Amino acid sequence: MQQNVSKAQIAIDINVHISSIHREIKRNSDERNSNYRADLASRKCNKRHKEKLKNQCFSNEIKDYVSKLIQADYSPEQIVGRSLKEGINCVCHETIYKFILNDKKNAGGLYKHLRSKGKIYRKRGALKDKRGLIVGRVGIENRPTEVAEKQRLGDLEIDLVIGKDHKGALLTINDRATGMLQMKKIESKDAEIVKNATIELLESWKPFLKTITSDNGKEFAKHELIAQALKIDYYFANPYCS
């Protein structure tokens, strides 16, 4: 335009229809003096895109559909799966969780139908999260390879079976090779109680003990004292692995 090129020729040069050139100039020129400038046109275009209504997949109809299924105790993941089977264009489960959270902020009760009642849990892959780590933990990757063969006496596995309503527990210790079991009922999963019960159960096995492996429960936090008292090597399984 500054070179006085015709609008028809501009359309040919940039490979668009001439009507697009007319619309561009009309919509994005300076309203005060009708001059067209590229920087002004770009700002006006961006402003329109920012303010215009976007395509809303989460319509009121879909929100009603989601709400009814949540109230029927469906999880967001189940709702997405059901919508696929029924051919309904639903949103993803993350959007449904956000919808439930906003409903909770507005004093709604949809969150009460979630399995976790809307509580936020730590991600299993949060490697930098230091809460709840057991001091002095030695991982199972450091355990002697012969333990996996289950051929020798004295390689143990220890676990805790929690009672109903978290009242009481059973401490179980199995020999991997023979399946021999030592078991004791304890009043709670307190680490001190678990430590004392473990030492008591294994005192008679002490000459044969080699290794013991547990999960990462905080009830085994005093593993170093157990290892010292029984002269046994203590190892922990990998988190979230059976």
Salient structural properties:
single chain, five-stranded mixed β-sheet, 8 helices, elongated
Topology summary:
Blueprint: H1 7-13, H2 18-28, H3 38-51, H4 60-71, H5 76-86, H6 93-105, E1 155-162, E2 169-175, E3 181-186, H7 191-202, E4 211-214, H8 223-230, E5 233-236
Parallel strand pairs: 1-4, 4-5
Antiparallel strand pairs: 1-2, 2-3
Helix pairs in contact: 1-2, 5-6, 7-8
What structural class should be given to the helix and strand makeup? alpha/beta
Give the CA-based shape. Answer: elongated
Low-pLDDT segments = none
- Sequence of secondary-structure elements: HHHHHHEEEHEHE
Major sheet strand order: 3-2-1-4-5
Number of strands: 5
Please bin the fraction of helical residues.
25-40%
**Overall mean pLDDT score?**
89
- For the terminal residues, how far apart are their CA atoms? 72 Å
- Which oligomeric form is depicted? single chain
Global Rg: 33 Å
**Number of helical stretches of at least 4 residues:** 8
Measured by DSSP, the beta-strand proportion falls in 5-15%
Largest sheet: 5 strands, mixed
Describe this structure as you would to a colleague:
The chain has 242 residues and is α/β, with parallel strands linked by helices. 36% of the residues lie in helices and 12% in strands. The protein has 8 helices and 5 strands, in the order H-H-H-H-H-H-E-E-E-H-E-H-E. The chain has a 5-stranded mixed beta sheet, with helices on one face. A hairpin with a 5-residue loop joins strand 2 and strand 3. The longest helix has 14 residues, at 38-51. The mean pLDDT is 89.
